[in-house]
Amino acid sequence: MNYIIIAEDLFKKFGSIIALNKFNAVFPRGICGLIGPNGSGKTTFINILAGLVKPDSGKVEVLGLDSTENSLLIREKVGFLLEEMYYPSNLTVEKYLKYVARLKRTSFKEIKEISREIGLLEYFDRKIKTLSAGMYKMLGLTQALAGNPELVVLDEPVSNLDPLRRIRLLDFIVKISKEKDTSFLISSHVLPELEEICEWIVLIHKGKRIDSGTLSDLYLKYSTEFYEVMADNVHVLYDYIREHNLGEVVEVTKSKVKVRIKNYSEFNKMLASISDKVKIFYIRPVGGLKEVFKNAVEKSKY
Amino acid sequence: MLLRNRNISLLIFELETLWSKVLTYVMLVIFISSTLSYYNSSILFDTCELCVISLRFTEIWNAFTSSTVIYTVFLVAITAVSWSNAIDRKLAKNILSLPISRKVFFASKIISIVIPPYLTYIASHLFSQIYLDNFINFHSILITVLLTALYTLYVVSLTTLIFLIVKNSIATVLLTISILFLPLAGSVPPEFKYALASNCYSAALDYVHYSYCASAFNNPLLVRKYLRKANLALSELHTSLIIFTSVTLISLIVSYIYFKKIDLD
Fold first, then answer.
1. Which domains does chain A have, with CATH numbers?
2. Residues of A with CB below 8 A from B13's CB?
3. Are A102 and B93 in contact (CB < 8 Å)?
4. What's the pTM value of the predicted model, to 2 decimals?
5. Nearest CA in chain A to B98
6. Lower CB density within 10 Å: C or N end of chain B?
């Protein structure tokens, strides 16, 4: 597999607090998620990728480049949205982004296009200090996406955003990823959103990787009895599950069926065979990634 | 074309970010008023050229000695504020997430702090000397431009070093001002006076003044006397210059090494 980020034995300590404790992880091309509670080491890992923090030991390769030796080259190829960013408050959004265009050696036209797509364009005349927290985040996103980077690292991109902007942003990420073949590493607490777009997930807790893999791998590994299936025709799905005795149907709503199942892989396989009759949008444990993360932490010794 | 250069763009960005309109106006008012008030614009009717030079040099020294205090305090405060914006308020983190090296960021930060106050300060002094005093003297202009540049860098680099160690703007201002004005305290050894800007300006102006005197007289005894005085002033100037230059260089190098290694978390 072609990995965009490879972290090997990363260790970082701030005073007496261990932020990363021999963190090992790989991230393939595509949209990847980094999931962990507050203080689990996500931000420290992202700061190391950006060359803002130096690891005490271990190394990390980004796009085949060592993060400590080639930090500048990495920042040429990678766009970063960090958790805490400060922008000069006395500048207008337009003026600031003009500077970003020059510093990233890209055209202002391209930045304007990104701003239009994520809804920042109408705020161009405003001074940065007058922006709301959500728009402040959008400004950072525009900066991260400018210059057509190969990889975009987003630390908590959807926090402070209203639901409509969250959806718009996530759709935009998927669109960029497909159209421009840009990879994304997204660290977030908002798990349902990550679940919808991430192809690869790394679970981090107390500075260590608990597990990683595709969503279905993780569901399979940390599955609970209850799953929810979203489909375009729940009645056909309901009949099929009952007919083939795939599990006990607990609840049926307009678009989802909640089932208690015994064997996830068999259930998954059986549903794949009726793809011509019913369009399945997703199959995931009730509670989704939150449940997976909870079970993964419980199963691990940390 | 120049604006397309990333380093120049960063420097302009830093200048625009730090020097808001209000701050620039405040600086102009402080520097211009504090400088002009120390120059005596009266016309000197003395026919003796040497006496005119002597009086004007004394006046320039007085103006520098007095205005340097305000200049120093302003420089220390603005340096602390600028680094505080960069480190505490995470502006440096934002800029360094872009393809900008720490070396370029550090250099542009120092230059953006130094240039506006320096240009305003020397412009107000040169304006006073040339326009108000009608005193156009190559040596006084040279002393004004070069010594002020060195002193400005000395103050800014020392403040930068102290901020990076202390990481608190108020503590930095208090500590730096205490260090810079320590030589004024009566209880410190007399050697400390070499680290005073007023002493450096005085030595430079004395050297030029006594050299003029030595060349103006024919009497060998007087020539020898003035040359001795000029040499004494020159050695004082050398000592001051060595102190200012070495402190500036050491502070800049240590600050840069420290900044390069610092975790911007």
1. 3-217 (3.40.50.300), 225-285 (3.30.70)
2. 88, 99, 103
3. no
4. 0.86
5. A75
6. N
